[in-house]
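FIELD: query
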Amino acid sequence: MSEGVKGMQWEYNKTNFDRNLAVVIGINLEQRYRW
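FIELD: result
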């Protein structure tokens, strides 16, 4: 596996992780303010 492909894969995973994290935080905030 070339370094370029590995770097792209890692960037993609990092982006997905950040997006999932934002979704989880958003859900937590929604629930907190709903109470």
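FIELD: remark
The chain has a mean pLDDT of 82.
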